[in-house]
Specification:
Elements (H helix, E strand, L loop, with lengths): L2 H25 L3 H9 L39 H7 L9 E8 L5 E2 L7 E3 L1 H13 L4 E7 L18 H13 L4 E6 L12 E2 L12 E2 H18 L3 E4 L6 H11 L6 E8 L6 H7 L24 H12 L4 E5 L5 H10 L4 E5 L1 H12 L5 H15 L3 E4 L2 H8 L5
Parallel strand pairs: 1-3, 1-4, 1-12, 4-5, 5-8, 8-9, 9-10, 10-11, 11-12
Antiparallel strand pairs: 2-3, 6-7
Helix pairs in contact: 4-5, 5-6, 6-7
This protein binds ligand PBG.
The site of ligand PBG has 12 residues, from helix 8.
Length: 406
Amino acid sequence: MTRPIFIAPICTPFVARLTPLRNVTRARPSSSRRSSHLLAVSAPDRPSTDTASLSLPRNSRNEPWVEQRSRPRRNRKTDGMRDMVRENLVLPCNLVYPLFIHDETHAEDIAVMPGCQRHSQASMLREVGEALALGVRHVILFPKIAEDLKSNHAHECYNPDGLVPRAVAAIKERFGSQVSVWTDVALDPYSDQGHDGVVSEDGNGDGGCGRILNDVTVDMLCRQALCHARAGADIVAPSDMMDGRVGAIRDALDADGFTDVSIVAYTAKYASAFYGPFRGALDSAPRATSRAPQNKRTYQMDPGNYREALLEASLDVGEGADMLMVKPGVPYLDIIRALHDNTDLPISAYHVSGEYAMLKAAAERGWIDEREAVLETLLCLKRAGATSILTYYAKQAAAWMQGSRR
Ligand code: PBG
C-alpha cells in the first residue's frame, strides 16, 4: 500500500537530479581543465608520483573538493543540530521494569542476571519507589512459586491470597495510580511441568509426549487474569501464546466489571533461547520429568517466521488487545516494525533476560561501554516501533537518562 506513494514523489525528482550531475562529473575532468588544476597546486600538496591522476579536483581555495551538493553530515555537525533532527528519543516513561518476587523476607541475588534480585515484599516496594523517583512508572511482576504449590493445572495461579495478588495490592496501596502494575498471565511459574499450559495425560504429542491443552489452559488464564484484576492490576499481559486467550480474558474481565483493565498481548512471542536466565531465576523451564516436550515450540512461535506474527497480530487486535508485544527484542526488530506498520495499536518490546545477560557479561569484562550500549539498544527498540520497552535495565537506564543527551 505504501509502495506507489513512496516511488512517485521521491524517486522521480531524485533520478532527474542525478542525471545532470552525473553528466557534469563525467564531462568535467577534461584534460586541459584537470591539468590546469594540478598545475596550481602548491608544492607541498603536489603528489610526488603519478598518483596525480587519482587526486581530487580543487575548489577556488585550492582545497580538495568532492563535488556534491548534498552533504548529510551538515545535519550532524553539532550537538544542537543532532538534538534537533533526532527522530526518536527513549525516555524513562517508555520503560517497564520487570521485578522478580518470592515469598521470603529477604531479597536474593540472581547470579545469571547481575543487578537483578528475587524480591521480598519490602524490597520490591523499595525498588518500585526508586524506579518511580527516576520516572519509571510501570512495573511487571514475575513470581517464583514454592515447589509444593505447583501442579499441572496450576491452580495456585488464581489464589486470591497468592504471591502476585498480595504484591499487586501492596504496590497499589503504597503508590496508587502513580505506578501501573502489570501482571504476567501464564501458568509456567505455577506448573509442575514447567509449561505455560496444562499438559494432557495422553501421549498424542510430538514423540509420544503429552500436548499442551489450549482451551483448558485458557480457562485457567481467565481465572488468573480476573484474580490479578481483583487485586488491583492495571494491566494484564498474557504471555502464554494460547489461541483465543486475549478475547476470552477480555470477556472475563468485562463481565466482572473490569472494563478499565488493559490487556497487553504477547502477540509475537518466539520460542527463544534468550529466555534462559529468566527460567533459571524462576525455576520455570520445562521439566525433564514433564510428560510434554522440553521446549515450548507447540505454542511459542518459530524464530524463522515473519508472516505468522502478522496473523497473531490481527487476531489479537480483533480480540480486543490494547497493546501488542514482541519478544525477544533486539533479534526481532523486523517484527516490531511489522506490527507497528500493520496495526494501529501501541507496540511493546520485551528486552529479555538473555539480552540483558549478554550486555552485563560483556560490560563486566570491559568489552563494551555498558551505558552507551544499553541506551543505544533501547533507542533502537523505540526506533523500530516500540513505545514501551520492558527491560531489566529500566531503573539503571532511567538513572543514566537523567540529564543525559541522546
Ligand atoms: C513465561 C515467560 C517467560 C518470559 C516472560 N514470561 C519465559 C518463557 O516463556 O519461557 C521471559 C522473559 C525473559 O526472558 O526475560 N510465560
